[in-house]
Amino acid sequence: MSEVHTARRARLRDPAGRTAALVSHPANLRYLTGCAPPGAALLVGPDARDTLFLSPHATGRPTADPDAVTAADLGAEPRRLPEPGDELRFRSAGESGDPAVAAARTAADLGVATLAVEEHHLTVARHRALTAGAPHLPLADLGRTVEQQRLVKDEEEIAALRIAAEITDQALGELLESILVGRTERHLALELERRLIDHGADGPAFPTSVATGPHAGVPTHTPTDRRVEEGDFLSVRMGARYRGYCCQIGRTFVIGTAPADWQIELYDLVFAAQRAGREALAPGVECRAVDRAARQVLAAAGHGGAVETCTGHGVGLEIGEDPRLSPSAMSKLDARVPVTVEPGVHLPGRGGVRIDDTLVVRSLADGGPELLTITTKELLAL
Amino acid sequence: MSEVHTARRARLRDPAGRTAALVSHPANLRYLTGCAPPGAALLVGPDARDTLFLSPHATGRPTADPDAVTAADLGAEPRRLPEPGDELRFRSAGESGDPAVAAARTAADLGVATLAVEEHHLTVARHRALTAGAPHLPLADLGRTVEQQRLVKDEEEIAALRIAAEITDQALGELLESILVGRTERHLALELERRLIDHGADGPAFPTSVATGPHAGVPTHTPTDRRVEEGDFLSVRMGARYRGYCCQIGRTFVIGTAPADWQIELYDLVFAAQRAGREALAPGVECRAVDRAARQVLAAAGHGGAVETCTGHGVGLEIGEDPRLSPSAMSKLDARVPVTVEPGVHLPGRGGVRIDDTLVVRSLADGGPELLTITTKELLAL
């Protein structure tokens, strides 16, 4: 993997050799180095002088050699030790305390003209500490350069997402075989998270949401002590994180033998909207066109007001990444961009339906959108 | 509770009426309002014009009234709805998108001379958006004013911590009654977290660490698939979060009938260090004196180099709060400050011992330090 990370860092390097980049956002650090110890900072210098600085607070114990790095220093998952021949050098932040300040001082010593920092991640206080630590080094904004690099995934990243989705499907499938009536939302959510880990996930990609009865279909519902009852809608939103990669699934079920007519109608509607969104996915398509495809099905049925601001989003090392599938999203999709498609309708007091899938955008020649979360979307009565 | 929050916000109000405060750090928001929806910001104006702004991303669905707030908008735990007669007004951020920007515009409309923001929490990019949103309003640094307010707890906060500790003791106690040999660190950690929730915790206060054999005693050990073996040291570090309040316990056990001599020796040493730290806790005592009391016991036995930079820290709405118990900590303890005392020693390749307690600093007249985590600190062979 080391070569992959080296190549990613090389894309960040200024060919003119005048600017160095300082990366502090954890998901970006992990993308560029394979690890992200708490508070760490990566300096990408003009000529392959890449150095990952580690916090002394992460280090813990003082050592005779202040620059020495041990396995314990890389306590954040995943552990990653300097490999022989690794271009990346691991260094302690030393006396400055803040790895970003140590990186800025090193950049000043390298004689670069500018240091580009992640202004959307660094706090004002930390930015000021950089200026104080390297007073003659002008700071610029790196912006979301690394996030842009992360948008299109390579096949190794997609393979990790595929495994994350398999784990998620397994955990959800097992739950559906058990008896649900009488169990609480909180216990079902915990059970799902335990099963994710049983099947090899790093952990849940985000807090598992289990919503019953009137709660069903609320996208960010926090599980309560409400118990599953006959006749309920039950909606589940969950996902595994595997090797750092996050996927998402959402499904809605009915509890009991026969769903009511309004439940079948609402389900069919959300299913049609979700299918329209999925089928709109293709390289070159505007993100807002995908959103519109899903949204207009709901609006035509009079449920336009009950839809979220986004009907999908990118996934990867973070669960909510670019692109956004929303009415105001101006960008276009590319091949190998994984996204969720997740319209839903919630009727206050009655409940609702959500259907979320994770898919990878592929050209028609490559078989069209690749569905990662393959749990059935038929309306199951459990 | 509403009056408590009103009083806390009043302490933040500028008596001269010239400065407004903008609070964005989630733990501070929760302290001042009782809730912290994602991305929210609180404006404390000069004359009780308090407004909690909500993110439109949390809000989700567009509504006819853009300023309306529903239960779903307060999706973050705990839910808190505007109460009748509540001085705090709940508002949507509206078109600006960022609640902090909306708050800055309102502050400008109120005619204040300065807006004090949390520079240790706001990112550089968000700070710039505030300046763009309210270009004629000078920004200042609020610093850690709210964190300072949070240092000394009231008895209601301590009661929440006491319940968090009870839950933690119960979960750990149940685990000790079960068979441990052959189970993995990951499964034991999950089991402990499930039990925390069973007993009424909001969730774990921090990721539960279970460390066996050579891992035992590593403070931030991430549980692995290593199985518990006879003769192992087993160290557990965990804590419940209850009504937002976080506690911490750490205990080390031996697996099998008879601990080895080196295990007994190391345990007795860490126990003595931890007791010295606990006994040093009193109002008016320097934080570094508590650290020194624990640290010198370990140093005298030749283990000074294996000790963390901190031997304890404050707890409350965050698991790691001020004060720090470290050699460089200059502040003094006050009554009603809850802290951990948690020295430990790790011997590379062999394992180690950690003993962590959460206590509340009390004067001798009040009975001395109040131990919240009461699980036995005898060396148990399990």
From TrEMBL, chains A, B:
<dbReference type="InterPro" id="IPR050659">
    <property type="entry name" value="Peptidase_M24B"/>
</dbReference>
<protein>
    <submittedName>
        <fullName>Aminopeptidase P family protein</fullName>
    </submittedName>
</protein>
<feature type="compositionally biased region" description="Basic and acidic residues">
    <location>
        <begin position="77"/>
        <end position="92"/>
    </location>
</feature>
<dbReference type="Pfam" id="PF00557">
    <property type="entry name" value="Peptidase_M24"/>
</dbReference>
<keyword id="KW-0378">Hydrolase</keyword>
<keyword id="KW-0031">Aminopeptidase</keyword>
<dbReference type="InterPro" id="IPR029149">
    <property type="entry name" value="Creatin/AminoP/Spt16_N"/>
</dbReference>
<feature type="domain" description="Creatinase N-terminal">
    <location>
        <begin position="18"/>
        <end position="152"/>
    </location>
</feature>
<feature type="region of interest" description="Disordered">
    <location>
        <begin position="207"/>
        <end position="226"/>
    </location>
</feature>
<dbReference type="InterPro" id="IPR036005">
    <property type="entry name" value="Creatinase/aminopeptidase-like"/>
</dbReference>
<keyword id="KW-0645">Protease</keyword>
<dbReference type="InterPro" id="IPR000587">
    <property type="entry name" value="Creatinase_N"/>
</dbReference>
<dbReference type="Pfam" id="PF01321">
    <property type="entry name" value="Creatinase_N"/>
</dbReference>
<feature type="domain" description="Peptidase M24">
    <location>
        <begin position="160"/>
        <end position="362"/>
    </location>
</feature>
<dbReference type="InterPro" id="IPR000994">
    <property type="entry name" value="Pept_M24"/>
</dbReference>
<dbReference type="GO" id="GO:0004177">
    <property type="term" value="F:aminopeptidase activity"/>
</dbReference>
<feature type="region of interest" description="Disordered">
    <location>
        <begin position="77"/>
        <end position="97"/>
    </location>
</feature>
